[in-house]
Amino acid sequence: QVQLAESGGGLVQAGGSLGLSCAASGGTFAMGWFRQAPGKEREFVAAIWSGGRTYYSDSVKGRFTISRDNAKNTVYLQMNSLKPDDTAVYYCAATTRITRATLDSPLAYDYWGQGTQVTVSS
Question: For a pLDDT cut of 70, what percent of the chain falls above it?
Answer without folding.
Answer: 100
